[in-house]
Design goal:
226 residues; mainly alpha
Length: 226
Amino acid sequence: MTKKNILTIILDSVFIVAFNVLFFLNGGTQHVAAVWTAYGFLHFAYLMVLITPLIASKGSTAVLSKTTTYTISLLFFIVELLFAIITFITKTERIKMVISIETVLCAIYVIILVINLLADDSIANKQKRHESENDFIKGISNQIKYIQTLVSYNDAKKKLESLYYLAHSSPSKSGESMKFYENEIVRNISLLEDAANQNKITDILRISGEIERLLNKRTFEARTRN
């Protein structure tokens, strides 16, 4: 266990230890059922404050996601803390009322938290898909740019430059209907690199033309689907 983990556990334990010391020191162990109910829900609320950042969505939106879920759980904890303090001070014996209020508060919290987590998960998935789509365009553009450096013949160099700008300006949005074209583009770029390494000018021009055709087909498909 690292020093950071140990310090985190200590920090997370400060409230729960301090609260229980004060609770049992000032009130002892004899309490009415309503007080124990509030006590239990308060501990549940604090537990949720600790674990909600861990169940937040991952990805580039993770910081915002964790902040939002933590805020929701923190607000629930503050409400529970205030309600628990009132219950402890008044020592009410109206157990049905306390359980009803706690159930409503807990239900509202869980509903809001789940809705938020589902929304965050949807955003994270869209972000992940967008990043993957961008990676495809960047990847093929960089490969073509590299292949340019392998070619010295003027016409082939101009063709590859034109192909690079076509690839670089292609829509990043992808879809199932475009997977065939994308796979074919990747396959042909590999063939193009082989041709460039062997300085086969005719093959370079021919394969570049095929990649250009596939890129145009993919672009047309992407714009048609939008």
